[in-house]
Amino acid sequence: MHLRTDGDLHPVFCTIVPPHVLDHLSRSADARLADPARRTLVADGLRRDRRRTTALAAVPTAPGVGAVPTKPHRTLYDCRNSTALPGHQVRAEGDKPTSDASVNRAYAGLGATFELLLSAYGRSSIDGKGLPLIGSVHYGKEYNNAFFDGEQMVFGDGDGEIFLDFTVAVDVIAHELAHGLTQHTANLRYEGQSGALNESVSDVFGSLVKQFSLGQSAEQADWLIGAGLLAPRVSGDALRSMKAPGTAYDDDVLGKDPQPGSMADYIETEEDNGGVHLNSGIPNRAFHLLATALGGNSWERAGQIWFDVLTGGELTAGADFAEFARLTVAAAGARFGAADEREAVLKAWSEVGVPTK
Question: Which of 60, 153, 176, 182 has the most CB within a 10 Å radius?
């Protein structure tokens, strides 16, 4: 294996709730729904602009030859509803649980992600060298999002009307942390199809962490991203469905889930960095089709193939779906030979309309 060392890391600001969802909410006639959405959009815009001006000094590197940590190094902070990061430290690695459920859930979610990467793929944290994991909770007032800013994860409390506390879903925590994994490996640009792949990879590993934590097989998993985040008044199950993109929610206020599940319905748009949260449904569905076709634990074969592509050094920063698909076919063949895994990969991409040749 080798890693690309040409080019710089692309500074990213990645949120779990897409801008189009918040924009829809911001136009509600109900101020209880519109005001938090507007504040969240403003906060996200400021944070996104700030992130664009600050590139990380690090470059993707392979794990060193010495011993790497086999235990996570977590630090949790409480923003106390301010937007100053990281906030006040409230729990360090090894500390007993606090009285704040958000802190404890974030701490556990960071640990679950570290454990999957180490146990399934032999990787120590997101950089392969035991990088400390930082999380801040209670960010802003009624902040309707969670994000990774290139250095740490941040979780809002939600407005209680549409969204609940963003630490309630372990796959959301893992999704945000997986953006860091991508940053330290393939470094996919956050725009167009490469950006949609960036989002999809985070959904894939978010779902894998959830399945790993619950001991679920591919057949037992719900394949939902953010189940438990939507408040009771919302008609929907989650933010996204990997199994059936476009079906996660259908609500009078929130709107209908717009994700496509195949290239036939690919969305051309200039919004959301070229639809990174929309078209991610296509590779998401391909992964679900592969994992369920193979059966058993998704992280063992399907997840291994995706991990091999992400960390293999061949995936370019501006990769489109077809490039990623071709590399998954090659990775399946390299790891498993001319076996069922390779055929299943070919079939999965064919079903969503992505060419592999």
Answer: 153
Each residue's pLDDT, cut to its tens digit, for the chain (357 residues) gives 333 433 455 556 788 998 889 998 999 999 999 999 999 999 888 877 665 544 333 334 444 445 789 999 999 999 999 999 999 999 999 999 999 999 999 999 999 999 999 999 999 999 999 999 999 999 999 999 999 888 899 999 999 999 999 999 999 999 999 999 999 999 999 999 999 999 999 999 999 999 999 999 999 999 999 999 999 999 999 999 999 999 999 999 999 999 999 999 999 999 999 999 999 999 999 999 999 999 999 999 999 999 999 999 999 999 999 999 999 999 999 999 878 999 999 999 999 999 998
Q: Report which of 100, 99, 135 is spatially closest to residue 114, judged by C-alpha positions.
A: 135
In a 3-state reduction of DSSP, which class is residue 92? strand
Reading the block at residue 271, the tokens are: 């919004």
Question: Quick check: is 176 catalytic?
Answer: yes
Cα–Cα distance for residue pair 326/340, rounded to 1 Å? 16
CA angle, 228 as apex, 224 and 233 as ends, to 5°?
115
CA distances 352 to 132, 192, 224, 283, Å, are 37, 17, 18, 8
Q: How many angstroms separate the CA atoms of 53 and 50, rounded?
A: 6
pTM greater than 0.90: yes
* Pairwise CA distance, residues 173 & 136, whole Å: 11
The CA distance from 284 to 279, in Å, is 9
Residues 24, 138, 142, 176: which is the catalytic one? Answer: 176
Q: H or E segment at 181? A: helix 170-183
Of 142, 277, 288, 323, the catalytic one is: 277
CA nearest to 226, candidates 244, 249, 254:
249
In this structure, are residues 143 and 40 in contact, taking their beta carbons and an 8 Å threshold?
yes
DSSP 121-143: H---TTTSS---EEEEES-SSS-
Cα–Cα distance for residue pair 353/357, rounded to 1 Å? 12
Angle at alpha carbon of residue 43, lines to 40 and 44, rounded to 5°: 85
